[in-house]
Structures are given as C-alpha cells and as structure tokens.
Amino acid sequence: MSALAEKKSDKREAILDAALDLFVERGFHGTAVPEIADRAAVGAGTIYRYFESKEALVNAIYRMEKMRFGHVVVDDFPTTIATREQFRLLFMRMATFTIAHPKSFVFLELHHHAPYLDAESRAVEERMTMLFTAVIVQAQARGELKAADPRLLMGIVMGGFVGVVRGCVEIDQSLESADWKLAEQCLWEAIRS
Amino acid sequence: MSALAEKKSDKREAILDAALDLFVERGFHGTAVPEIADRAAVGAGTIYRYFESKEALVNAIYRMEKMRFGHVVVDDFPTTIATREQFRLLFMRMATFTIAHPKSFVFLELHHHAPYLDAESRAVEERMTMLFTAVIVQAQARGELKAADPRLLMGIVMGGFVGVVRGCVEIDQSLESADWKLAEQCLWEAIRS
Amino acid sequence: MSALAEKKSDKREAILDAALDLFVERGFHGTAVPEIADRAAVGAGTIYRYFESKEALVNAIYRMEKMRFGHVVVDDFPTTIATREQFRLLFMRMATFTIAHPKSFVFLELHHHAPYLDAESRAVEERMTMLFTAVIVQAQARGELKAADPRLLMGIVMGGFVGVVRGCVEIDQSLESADWKLAEQCLWEAIRS
Amino acid sequence: MSALAEKKSDKREAILDAALDLFVERGFHGTAVPEIADRAAVGAGTIYRYFESKEALVNAIYRMEKMRFGHVVVDDFPTTIATREQFRLLFMRMATFTIAHPKSFVFLELHHHAPYLDAESRAVEERMTMLFTAVIVQAQARGELKAADPRLLMGIVMGGFVGVVRGCVEIDQSLESADWKLAEQCLWEAIRS
DNA sequence: CATGAATGAGTATTCATTCAT
DNA sequence: CATGAATGAATACTCATTCAT
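Output (structure tokens, whole complex):
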C-alpha cells in the first residue's frame, strides 16, 4: 500500500519463502501449516487468503520455481553455437541458478513427480523435459553425442548434476566453491560421442 | 512357528515389506501406521511388538536395506583388478541390486539424510560412503581417475546412476531393459582421467 | 445520506435483510458473518459498525420482526367484538403477516427460545404471549372457549397455524393460495366450547 | 464383550445419546464434536470409529429416531376401527412416544428438512408422511373428516400436537401432566367434518 | 503373542472479530 | 464512515500409540 518497492503482497511472498524452506527441510507431509505461518510471521488463517489449501500452496511453489528455473536456464538458449558450447552454457546456467537459489533447486528435485502435484504443475515439468530432449536429439543428429536414448543421456547429466549439488549440501560446503567447471567437463565426457 | 524355513517372524517380515512399499509410494509422513498394518495383514498393535515406533521402523528398514545393498555391492570387492574392471563390477552390482530390489533402491535414495534417521542409520550410510571414497582415492593415486575431490566424482557417478534409474521409473520402463552397459560406459568416461 | 426516504442507514437495512435470509436458510451457527456481508454487499467490517456481534445482530432481527408481527397482529385489536370475530381477525392478521413476510415468520418460529436470544428479546416474546393469553382467558370467562389451560389452547392454535405454513413451505406452495379460511374454521372448532 | 446386556456397542449408544441431547439443546452447527465426545465420555476420535462424519452422525440419529417413532406410532395400526378411534389411538401413541422420548420428538421436529439430512433420511420421513396421508384420505372418503387438502389437516394436527408439546417444554411442565385427552379432543374437533 | 478398539494430541481449515488504511 | 486484509481461537477430523481382551 505504501512503499513503492512492495509490488506484490509482502505476505504472499513471505508465505512462499517460508513454505519453500520448510518443505525442503521436512517434506510436504512433515510440515504443518501453522509452522509455515510462524516462519512467515503471519497468522495461520492468512495463508488461506492466498492459497486455497496446503496442496495449492505446494503446487504454486513448484510452478513458480520451475518457471524461474526455466527463465534462467532455457530462455534465449542459442541454437546455432557448437554443441560443446551449448552444453557448457546449459550446465553453467543450471549452476548459476542453483547457487542463487539452492533451496529452489532442492525443492524441485524433491517434488519431481510427487503425487500431490496437479496436472498443471506436471505440464510445466513436461515442457521443460521436452526442451532438453530436443537439444540432445539435435546434437546426436550431428554425431556429437553418444547414440543412446536421449532420456538416458539426460538422466545421466541431470542426475550427475544433482549428485554434485547433493554432495555439497551434505557436507555443508558452499555451492559457490564447487568445482563446477570440472563437473561440467566430467559430464560432457560422459555423453559426448 | 513350526516350519524350518520360518527363521525370523513372518509378521516382522510382512511389516517391513509393507512399510517399504508405502514409504516409497507416499513418503514417511504420508503413510499412516494402520495402513502399514493393513497391507501387512496384521493388527495395528502388532507393529509395536516388533518396532518401538514408526521412526524405529523406518530406521530399521533403512539399515536393513542399506546393508543388503552393501552385501550385494561391496562384499568381496576385489582390490587387485584393474580400475576399469572395478568400476564395471561396482556399477553392474548396483544395477543388479536395483533390478532385484527397485523399491529398496528408491527407498534408500529418498531417505538419504531424512531428519528422522537416527545416528546408527547415519553411521551405516557413512561407512558405505567411506568405502567408495577409499576405492576412488586409490584409483586416483594410480592416475586412472580425474584428480578431483573424490566426493565430486562419487556424486557424479551415484547421481548419474540414480538419474538413469529415475528415468526408467518415470516412464514405467522395466529396469532390466535399461542399457546398463552404455550407462556404465558413459559414467566411466565421466570420471576416468 | 441525502435522500429524505433514507431514514435509517441503507446498509443497516441491507445487513438485516441478508442476515434474515441466511439465518432462515442455514441457521444461526450455519451462517458465516462474511456471507452475510457478501449478500448485503457491504464489507465484513461494516456489520460491526451497526451491530456489536453476530449475537447482537440475530437479537436485533428477532426483536424487530417480533415487533413487526405485533404491529400487524395485535395493534388496535378490538376487545368488544364477538369472540368468533376476534379469533377470525387474529388468524387472518397472522396469515396476512405470514404472506407478506414469510421469512420473518419462519425466522421467528426457528428462533423461538434459541439460547443466543438475550433477555430483552425474550421479554418481547413474553409480552406478546401474555396478550394472547388475556384474550383467551376473557373468552373463556364468557364460556365461548373450552375450559382448558389457556396455554394449551394457544399451543394448539399457534402450532396448528405453524403446521399449515410449514405444509405450504415444504411443498413450495405459495402461501397466498393456502385455504386460510378453512384452516381458520378448523382451529376455531378446535378451541371453541 | 462380557455383560450379556451389552448387546451392541456401549460407546456407539453413548455417542448417539449425547449427540441427540446436544443437537436438541444447541442445534447441529452449534454443537462441537468434542463436546459430544465429552458428554458421551469417550475420546473425540472414537466418534469417528462409529460414524464417518458429524453429518453421518446426525443422519444416523434422525433415521433411528424416526423409525422408533414409526414403530411406536404406526406399527399394527388398525384400519378397521372407527375413525374416531383411529385418531385417538394415533394421538395417544404420539403422546406416549413423546412422553417416553421427549428429546427424540423435539429432535425430529427441529431437523425436519434440515439441509444436512441425506436422501435416505428424507426417504424415511416421506414414507411416514405418506402413511398418515393415506389414513386421512380414507377417513375423508367415509365423510368423517373435513373435505380439505389432506396436507392441510395433517399440518393442523401435527402442528397442534407440536404446539402442545412446546407449550409444556417452554414452561418446564412435565409432559405426563399435560391434558392429552383434552388436546386430543380439540384436534379431533378441528378436523372432523 | 496378537489384536483392534480407544484415545487425545495434532492437523488442515474456517470464521467472528479487529483495525490500519 | 467503510473496508477487507489479517488474525488466532475454534472446528472437524486423523493418526501414532496403548492396552484390555
């Protein structure tokens, strides 16, 4: 109402942030709505002014974070540069996103295919998968990647990336300090022909 | 209570199986104890004859499965054969385990570092990690793997493996039919020097 | 706030109307204050400018409707005409009121002795009962009504009247079309000596 | 389990009794489930072992009491005796039921057509109404009742009966002491031709 | 031993009421 | 004056756990 910087609702944002944190820490079912309210410093009832239910809330977070991920990683993705450069760019953008929003990344990982995600959330996920697949297929056509099921290659790269991130998180190492360039090189060698 | 084959209690086994299934399907907090009892075809109270609490149950499963994984994957692991062979063996043993016990594998993945795992469960996990690390360090000493933090390499390999499994699960493809040899080759190339 | 016709506040009236409707449809506890606000097309807070609480609101309605009923039914009630005529007049005035304000009548019926009615509301109710009783006692003194406890006779007449109204409401028959004259004759025969 | 007299579940009965009392005193929406549990001296959760929801509970009570009423009032209703005798029997059976189960009677009155009654409950109600209607129509055919819409006559009689009961309840008079014979005579005169 | 009825603390959600704008 | 966002106590309902049988 007052400050210019307060574009959208303060509280909505606070709720989303708090819920993201807690869902990452304790899981969806392990997080009580009043806990979210407490951490967001709002009343329990306030959450229901912004989200119809706990499920609606988790879905809102999923879609928002997935799209944020998409904006950072796939927006303006160059299709004409060399495959090696494409891979590096993709990987580094993913690293950039993960460093900037580590919780978001972990959240997206954890909720990949959770039963409480609704059709729309799943659609957002699917769109992104198809994008990646297309890039891989194209590169395979140029003979620059191994001739395997694109899903296998994608599984290896995304899984490997997650493995690196998890390694950092588990030992409380800062993500900035990770050897992203080396990891990128490893995973490139995994899939290049 | 008579048959020789019935070493441990029938019921205990049934409970563990049912709980494993449900924890994988719906998560720890998403699974009610009476549901476990129903699927195990025992009374709800019976669960508490074998396990002190729901947490004790999930920890028992975690330790049991982790050790089963260990038995299949690391028992009698040859230290003298070539690194390439060591990697292939490790990878294929992991594939064997995952094909034989897919739920167990997914369970272990999902509960990696869950807050309700107790100290002992974490210790089991740690022991296994150290084992893998030792193998990697040794191979690095021989100059056969990239000279990176062993945790990075392990993250890539384990993550990549999980990525392949998840890929199969997501598209309901049988794990037997996955191209394990190709995946193994990819991940070897990822980490070899 | 300007027009002469707007004696009391527009909004107060709208709130009373909306609340009457909803209390009849869903009961006192079954009606949410914001619902009343919505139907009255005012803000939820506005209700509290006019009424101290939900209870105060229901009491205000009760007293207002009870007094409206009183004005139609007992004002200028002739004490000198024949008992038969008195009864006919009373009955037809009640019918007139019920036809004009069916919701009000049903509301009064439903909230007869509700625990959230306060002392003043109960007093309004009592005054009206005493009036009726006096008429009955007088007529009994003239030997024109059965020599029973006046409360019994009043119970029969008022109950019978309600029964007729409920019959119409239940089958969605318009109250105008009811055979009021016949009903009046029935109930007169019930109590006449 | 033990006592012979304990045919059905003790607790189920206690819950039904407590709920009947409270629904009569405070209405459906005005009664909290834990209040019912308290008065029934059972845990709140226990209610849900016997009834799926609060609505299921109120419907169970409605059906049970309606049928109990039916058993007392309409079972073995003689069709061959004189109409005057039929009416007296009906009326006195209703009085007997009301004296024996006053709360049940008031409950049935209050929940007549409540929106949370389900189709089955409504069907029970309808069956009884049709029974009464048939008796009235028959008597009209014999020219012993006024030639009015049977629903009107039924409304007058049932309404009048309720009026008498309410009169007693309001002044805390015992129902036994009511002058049922006189009331019966009044209502007979109301409808006889 | 095994059971499942019983429990009550805990959960998601609603709603009467307040108050800053 | 009027509002409706915000609140938190209260509600219906669930579920881990116990215990009499």
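Residues 1-51 of chain B form a domain with the Arc Repressor Mutant, subunit A fold (CATH 1.10.10.60).
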